[in-house]
Amino acid sequence: LGEICRENKDYEHAHLYFNDALEHMKEIDDYESYAAVLVNLADLYYKEEIYDTALMLYDSVLNITSALNTKIAIYNNIAEIQYYVIGNIKEAKGNYSKMLTLLTEDIDSYTLASAFNNLSSIYIEEGVFDTAYMYLAKVDSICNLNPIGNIRLTLYQNYHDLYMKVGDDDKANHYLEQYS
Question: What does pTM read for this prediction?
Answer without folding.
Answer: 0.62
